[in-house]
Design brief:
The protein has 232 residues and is α/β, with parallel strands linked by helices. Helices cover 18% and strands 27% of the residues. The protein has a single domain (2-218), classed as Glutaconate Coenzyme A-transferase, CATH 3.40.1080.10. The strands form 2 sheets. Strands 1, 2, 3, 4, 8, 9, 10 and 11 form an 8-stranded mixed sheet that branches. A 3-stranded antiparallel sheet has the order 5-7-6. Strand 3, helix 3 (85-93) and strand 4 (97-100) form a beta-alpha-beta unit. The chain is globular. This is CoA transferase subunit A.
Length: 232
């Protein structure tokens, strides 16, 4: 049983092996379900020249946004960039390479990477700048783009509960990109709110089987609200 125990007790151990120039796939959507403490550990390590794949780049001063402060991200593959002023500045000044990707295509690229599918055809982006430099093919009279899959050296994921074998359950909207990201890393690290003993999770409720997970750590989370809208 001990050999299957994937729980680590420090964030330093959780991100052991991270090196400059690696590709990181990060779960989350906006500030919902983001692996905020794993991101903070990357910040602490000052790992540089990273390629980061995520729906967006966090916000100013939180989430993936903190990695921009010391220019740790060299390339960002994302579908949305509208909530981070520093990200916008670095994009416009050419300090960061940004690959804007349609959101559904980004999700499928990650899913394909986790499933061992090297590439797939999609109609999304045909006739737009997204298609520049990409192979196209006409299938049943419609033009499609060939999109390569994405795999990461690390996948960092936020879950709700996990057992010691790395089986993970996500809560509500935090499912977003997290289950996809969990499958696509050579090393997948999941931080959760609660670690339970093996057998406590209902098998039919598990979203990410432990076979995909290398390390699990229990964290404490701030869970910021991205935008507050109230009636006057």
């Amino acid at each position: 049983m001990a050999g299957f125990d994937k729980v680590v007790t420090s964030y330093e151990e959780a991100m052991d092996g991270l090196e400059d120039g690696m590709t990181i796939i990060a779960g989350g959507f906006g500030l919902c379900g983001i692996p905020e403490n794993l991101i903070a550990e990357i910040k602490r390590r000052q790992t540089k020249q990273l390629t980061v794949v995520s729906n967006n780049c966090g916000s100013d001063g939180f989430g993936l946004g903190i990695l921009l402060e010391d220019k740790q991200i060299q390339k960002m593959i994302a579908s949305y960039v509208g909530e981070n002023n520093l990200f916008e500045q670095q994009l416009l000044s050419g300090e960061i390479d940004v690959v804007l990707t349609p959101q559904g295509t980004l999700a499928e690229k990650i899913r394909a990477g986790g499933a061992g599918i090297p590439a797939f055809y999609t109609a999304t982006g045909v006739g737009t700048p997204v298609a520049e430099g990409k192979e196209t093919r006409v299938i049943d009279g419609r033009e499609y783009l060939l999109e390569p899959a994405i795999k990461g050296d690390f996948a960092i994921v936020k879950g709700w509960k996990a057992d010691r074998f790395g089986n993970v359950v996500y809560r509500h909207t935090a499912q977003n990109f997290n289950p996809l990201a969990a499958t696509a890393g050579k090393i997948t690290v999941v931080e959760v709110e609660e670690i339970v003993e093996v057998g406590e999770l209902e098998p039919t409720q598990i979203h990410t089987p432990g076979i995909y997970v290398n390390r699990v750590i229990k964290g404490t989370f701030e869970k910021r609200i991205e935008k507050v809208a109230v009636r006057s």
